[in-house]
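=== RUN LOG ===
request id: a7f3
mode: sequence -> structure
chains: 1
length: 490
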Amino acid sequence: MEGLAQGGMACAAPRGGADPLPDRPPCAFERLSAVADAVLYEGYLLYPYRRSSAKNRVRWQFGVLFPRDWVASDGPVVPGVSGSADSWYQQTECLLRIRRPGASVRVRLRYLQMQRKQVLQETRPDGGHRAVESLRTDDGTVHLTFDEAVPREVDVAFFLDALLQSEHTVPVGAPAGVEAEPLAGGAGRVERRREEVRASTTVAAEPLSADLCRLRVRTANTGPAPDPRTARDEALRHALIATHTLIGGDGVEFVSLTDPPAELSAPAGGCRNEFTFPVLGGEPGTADVLLSAPIILPDHPQVAPESPGDLHDAAEIDEILTLRTLLLTDEEKREARATDERAAAILDRVETMPPEVFARLHGAVRSLAPVTEAPPPGERPAWWQEGADDGLSPSTDTVLVGGVPLGAGSRVRLRPRRGADAQDMFLEGRTAEVAAVFHDVDGSVHLAVTLDDDPASELHTWYGRFHYFRPGELEPLEPAPSESPRSGGR
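=== RESULT ===
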């Protein structure tokens, strides 16, 4: 993941009728600024950053909260764990350990408000203006009509005792506005116009034990719905875009919902998160801040230290995008610069990138463990000796798990390890069939599986697209035979 850090953000201020909150150190939200900005501008503008690009004609795909009646006009809104579907609300539920009396909770809501950038050409001799799609001024600069977005941020804070007594609702919308900027040589002007966004955030807490509670943060678009026939691009003018929430506090500690401790697995499973996915933020080992995002992330997400800045593309590979951006033609670069100021900033950064910074983009391996000594010759992976891997057969090899030889056709239940990828954690308890047994060059064994309840399992098998798990993450569904056949788990 990669993002653009944009300076400091103010700490939360006391709201909601509670007594003023005590002074505290700089808020933990600051440590998440780069990751939070990457979420905020996820998919804002995609390579090749030109208005004419087909994939930049359908924008704003994550965390979009429309007026309720408009988004529900095509049928009921079905909740999901991430915000890739349009909705009118977003709900985060998480567990809080209460560490001391007088604890407080701080919530920061962040989203984008759509802004229409309209280019207006001066019409002579009456001095009026007419809307145009593009305009080139005398200095050669091209200006394009395009939809931009303005970042919005609202901070609220409450004593936890007040939230345990009753829920609190605060307005988090943004006003309408318009600004005009004259163009060089009197050719016309650029007008930026925003429609009002009405929304509210409700915060509540439910006690589960003397030192544990469930916190709920629910943000809803409360604006009047446009006509149901209104196009999505127009309805976006009244929507919250890329909506996400940061939650922190004093005297509290958050519990990971991705990897909860065993004694809290039941209350963690009872948390209902809709159109968002909460994870622990900050450095590994800390639990003082939570990021609830409309995209699925792991606990403690980090921006790669090698990344020099945001490129706005989901799951982006900085080196490839940088190289491809450099290969844009001069005309394509002119259009990208005219499309959006953020696109122009990306081009400037790429074109002026020092060689040593670019060299760092080639990649870094962070998951390898040091090898202290080589294994005995008889236990080395087959790849260590040329030609010795001829005996390996993914379709017929087996590996012993709990005394049961697992191989192609074996039935298993998935038990992802703690700290596994979030996508794997969602498969906890699902049943599957082993398709093959694979061996890494370092001797590790992975089993490829297809899910029993996946309607596209046959297609995935045909393409060779599987889920991969280590032997210890699988639970055999067949009992161990009295006499096991030879295991292929060399």
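=== NOTES ===
Residues 386-476 form a domain with the SH3 type barrels. fold (CATH 2.30.30.490).
The chain has a mean pLDDT of 84.
=== END ===
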